[in-house]
Amino acid sequence: MRGPVPGLVRRIRSGVRRPRLPRTRRGRRRAFQAVVAVTVLALAPATWMNATAGPRVHGVADAPSAPVAIVFGAGLWNGAPSPYLAHRLDAAAALYERGTVRAVLVTGDNSRTDYDEPDAMRSYLLRHGVPARKIVSDFAGFDTWDSCSRAHRIFGVNRAVLVSQGFHIRRALALCNAAGVDSDGVGVAAKRDVTWAYGGVREIFAAGKAAADALLRPDPQFLGPHEKGVTEALADAG
Asked: Is the overall model pTM greater than 0.85, yes or no?
């Protein structure tokens, strides 16, 4: 079998242009400035979240009082809360037991009949001592913005303690405060495993969407009518 024709190889190679660095000092300076500008723009949303939300992250023991704790969904394993979600629920149960909050709003995904985060979260809290009348479920918390927006617009929450892992809590705080919920957060400790690493990387990319949501404040995917669950849970004196 004959090898490639030398002339054809030369033409193919001549058609491939390799990127070249600017030849002049001024050109290299401009290229460097462009790289810095792109990097700053990419990191600006994450910097905004850390600056605005960082001072409001606490542990369970020193979290300030609020009427409601909001727990964000974090996946199910065979219909039960994943370990990450279980840790969030443990923290919420502890906040209720300490008297830091008087009700718990669990918000998650129930977009399919075979996947129900809020009910799994509610069942877990019941097993850990939180009374049924103090647990309110939001079945349309499809993402963090939707959960925050619906907490304020549908459930009437104006003040809350948010519960999530440390890599997510700052985004949740920034979005809930933008949605009208005066919030502090409990950053739940997490094992430094693959899920933790993925969550940290994901937050870098999610920061851009969070900044857009905070600025534009879009309607959640599902709005629906006002619900009295939180009001009734707080009014219950038992």
From this structure: no
**Residues contacting 17, CB < 8 A, separation 6+:** none
* Side chain identity at residue 227, one-letter code: E
DSSP state of 140: B
Selection from 38, 122, 21 nearest residue 81 by Cα: 122
Closest CA to 144 of 117, 182, 109: 109
Contact 124, 27 (CB under 8 A): no
Q: For residue 43, what are the contacts with CB-CB under 8 A and spacing of at least 6?
A: none
Structure tokens at 166: 């440390």
How far is residue 85's CA from residue 43's CA, in Å, rounded to a whole number? 28
CA–CA gap between residue 47 and residue 1 (Å, rounded): 60
Handedness of CA 95, 99, 101, 106 (dihedral sign): positive
Instruction: Determine contact, residues 234/104, Cβ cutoff 8 Å.
Output: no
How many CA atoms lie within 13 Å of 18's alpha carbon, on the beta-carbon side?
4
Angle between the N-to-C axes of helices 166-179 and 25-53, in degrees from 0 to 180, rounded to the nearest 10 = 80
Nearest to 100 by CA among 131, 127, 67, 71: 67
Q: Which of 89, 94, 95 is nearest to 73 (CA)?
A: 89
Residue 205 carries which side chain, given as an amino acid letter? F
pLDDT digits 0-9 by tens, 25-73: 665 555 544 444 334 344 455 555 666 666 899 999 999 999 999 999 9
